[in-house]
Design brief:
Blueprint (H helix, E strand, L loop, with lengths): L6 H25 L5 H7 L2 E11 L4 E10 L1 H16 L2
Antiparallel strand pairs: 1-2
Helix pairs in contact: 1-3
Length: 89
């Protein structure tokens, strides 16, 4: 009988794949010069930012915001993680 695939496991697998690709990209960026073709294709990232939003309450305030950086290596990591999730037994 085939195993059911849950959305939670998919999300965790994609996050782990993305983090692994980001770590590998950071390590490669230390060894490869910024002017090389490999850096320009695989490692040059694009930032998407959700600016700081301040939630001011009487006793305290929260400041929320985040930035996501995507590059080709990150997308390849996500695809590898999805492929792993899809083919796992």
């Amino acid at each position: 009988m085939p195993r059911q695939r849950s959305a939670g496991v998919l999300i965790i697998t994609l996050i782990v794949g993305t983090l692994a690709a980001t770590v590998i990209g950071s390590i490669l960026a230390g060894f490869i010069g910024r002017s090389s073709v490999v850096y320009q294709v695989l490692l040059r990232g694009y930032d998407y930012a959700f600016g700081p939003v301040v939630l001011n309450l009487v006793l305290f305030s929260f400041t929320l915001g985040f930035t996501i950086t995507f590059n080709l290596l990150t997308i390849l990591g996500m695809l590898a993680a999805y492929n792993y999730w899809k083919r796992r037994t």
